[in-house]
Amino acid sequence: MEKQEYRILxxxxxxxxxxSGQSLKWLQKCYPISAPSKTTVxxxxxxxxxxxxxxxxxxxxxxxxEATNAEIVQQVHQIVLSDRKVxxxxxxxxxxxxxxxxxxxxxxxxxxxxxxxxxxxRLLTIDQKQQPMVKLNQLRFELVAHPPYxxxxxxxxxxxxxxxxxxxxxxxFTSNEEVIAxxxxxxxxxxxxxxxxxxxxxxxxxxxxxxxxxxxxxx
Length: 219
What we know:
Elements lengths: L2 H13 L4 H11 L7 H12 L20 H13 L5 H8 L3 H11 L2 E4 L2 E4 L4 H13 L16 H14 L7 H13 L3 H20 L8
Antiparallel strand pairs: 1-2
GO molecular function, one term: nucleic acid binding
InterPro entries: RNaseH_sf (IPR036397), Transposase-MT_Hybrid (IPR052709)
Keywords: Methyltransferase, Transferase
């Protein structure tokens, strides 16, 4: 199908009262090979919400588009905030500028970087740095000093990763996307009690670590 036809289908979903997520799933189900990307669907939903009615490309003026004007920067920022895993290629298609200019906007204007698979701020603001402490104070947690690093006192080491490794044991993948999908499926299948148990185990391990004067609990 042509991209114009997909836009008409997206508009149909919008007029039928579906949200962007529902529309994306429907398109992927009906057209599993050629369905438009998440970024494309979300962008057109945003356009229709702002009153756009046409599904055709906007006419080009004789003067080239400024690649870093405020409107383009805002558009890139909104897309990234709605989908932290968006690819440069998808952003390029969405806003209609070169990959190099998109990269410039992300790195130098928005000051973002790719961490693993997600776009994140390059530097945390003071407010972002203080948020964990504010939350700990709200929960009335007591802050206790412990060694700079101890696998006995790190829930990810003594609880999360061992179970995680068993989940992946014997499985083979052909791409990073498959690994990411399998990882997301693993965590989506866990409930609150799983995480609560890992944290509750910390108290017992902390007591043992103190009794052993910092030596490994397993010893």
